[in-house]
UniProtKB/TrEMBL annotation:
InterPro entries: CN_Hdrase_a/SCN_Hdrase_g_sf. The lineage of its organism: Bacteria, Bacillati, Actinomycetota, Actinomycetes, Nakamurellales. It comes from Nakamurella alba. SUPFAM superfamilies: Nitrile hydratase alpha chain (SSF56209). Keywords: Membrane, Transmembrane, Transmembrane helix. It comes from the Bacteria. This is NHLP leader peptide family natural product.
């Protein structure tokens, strides 16, 4: 792992930065994202699909989570998840962010890096 990835604060940031600077890691993430994410410390449940989006240097990809009906009532499982820990929606957002690869990151020296 390079010095730039160790400066990232979250596992998702580390994955995105590694994919930006390590061609072999990026290739593994593109060809087998579930295994590559698992090896990087992020377990994605089998029922959740993973889609990796590669952006160009001149574009910004923003992945949106599923729309939530503000009037919907929570079922028992959702209420249990609301008391703490990870919920499926939180995990989904995290996975989408991990697959976005289109963000602009600030490097430790203050420069901007498009990934």
């Amino acid at each position: 792992m390079s010095d730039i990835t160790t400066a990232a604060t979250s596992p998702l940031e580390q994955i995105q930065l590694r994919a930006a600077v390590e061609p072999e890691f990026r290739s593994a993430l593109m060809s087998d994202p579930r295994t590559t994410l698992r090896k990087s410390g992020i377990e994605v449940p089998e029922q959740i699909s993973i889609r990796i989006e590669e952006s160009a240097a001149d574009e910004f990809v923003l992945a949106l989570p599923p729309a939530i009906d503000p009037e919907a009532e929570l079922d028992e499982d959702a209420l249990a998840g609301a008391s703490g820990g990870f919920t499926p929606a939180f995990l989904y957002v995290g996975v989408v962010v991990a697959g976005t690869l289109g963000a602009v990151w600030s490097l430790p020296d203050g420069r901007k890096k498009s990934v």
